[in-house]
Amino acid sequence: MQVKTNTPWMAEKAQDYPERLPAEIAFFGRSNVGKSSLLNALLNRKKLAYTSSMPGKTKTVNFYMMHDDFYITDLPGYGYAHKQKQSNRFAELFEDYLASDRITHAFLLIDGRQAINPLDVSMAETFNYLDIPFSIVVTKRDKLNQSAVHAIKTTALEAFHVSEASLYMVSSLKGKGIESLRDAIESMIQLVKDGAS
Hints:
Layout: E1 9-11, E2 23-29, H1 35-42, E3 61-65, E4 70-74, H2 84-98, E5 105-111, H3 118-129, E6 134-139, H4 146-160, E7 167-169, H5 178-196
């Protein structure tokens, strides 16, 4: 899985989106969940997606065109915008993208060290309402002991009503679970190709 260019197509509004490709894999998550680090690990690039200790850095929908002719999209981290104007703009950005009917599959990231947030549950409910297939990715696996891993798995399965096959435990730092997630995405893309042929 290789990205075509280091510079993503960045869009704030639906009219700014790039042309559609056969598939689009979208990544959602709260600010500081480790989304940029995961994308860098997933795509074997150190600084493709910008990481920061300051939440709210991503302010556009970033489209990464892949060599297999699909997009990986990076959505801004939600749950941080503290100014009403910024919060409203973020809400419109998410609404536009979710309503665009572009998403082949969504990955919802949650921090394995934190309690599951109502915003995450609400996002999963939105996916269900819009019939967007989704999976849960638990980040920062390297920070968890075995009992914590079992606890977050159990809690996530109950909170998001997904199967264990749709739950991924990853560590961007250590590389754990990255290959499984990459394989899952490649399988999804192959299914789209097979359906189009």
